[in-house]
Design goal:
The chain has helices spanning about 5-10, 15-45, 50-55, 55-80, 85-105, 125-155, and strands spanning about 110, 115-120, 120-125. It has about 160 residues and is mainly α. The chain has one domain. A 3-stranded antiparallel sheet has the order 1-2-3. It is elongated, with a radius of gyration of 18 Å.
């Protein structure tokens, strides 16, 4: 049976598959660069960061989350008319608490009075976490507004 989007435009088959592909575009390009950064820091600075525990899981999950989030945008946009940049900026508000909960339950992250301790090796004060979180929200807004929306246009779903 045809979906609602396909009925509106029969020349636009599989819009959710294309939305997923447009969503995974950015993290698929960026995460290997982050991996190179982690490996460089670990080798050159000899920081005791267990790369396999820090980056491998996000490399497997983050592209799928971006793809599913873009599918949700495609489905919800006719109802909410929320701009894609704002839609993308909402994602850190969901991902950060879920990631922190998962990391703390697996023993990778300990919450303290003045900050968090990451892998019993790196203490990060809450003020720095707040600044980094705001930068992430701004970054997600820009990535979704310009790059993901461009990929959506190229794939014919925007």
């Amino acid at each position: 049976m045809n979906s609602e989007l396909e009925q509106e435009n029969p020349m636009n088959p599989h819009p959710y598959l294309r939305a997923y592909l447009a969503g995974i575009f950015v993290p698929t390009l960026v995460l290997p660069l982050i991996l190179v950064g982690f490996i460089t820091v670990r080798i050159i600075l000899a920081l005791p960061i267990p790369i396999e525990r820090v980056i491998i899981f996000p490399m497997a999950v983050v592209p799928s989350i971006f793809g599913l989030w873009n599918m949700l945008y495609l489905w919800s946009h006719p109802r909410t008319h929320l701009p894609i940049g704002i839609h993308g900026a909402i994602l850190p508000f969901l991902g950060a608490p879920i990631g922190a909960l998962g990391a703390s339950s697996l023993g990778m992250l300990q919450l303290g009075a003045g900050g968090i301790t990451w892998f019993q090796a790196c203490h990060i004060p809450y003020a720095l976490i707040g600044v980094v979180f705001l930068a992430a929200v701004a970054g997600y807004y820009l990535v979704w507004k310009y790059i993901v929306s461009f990929a959506n246009r190229v794939l014919g779903i925007a």
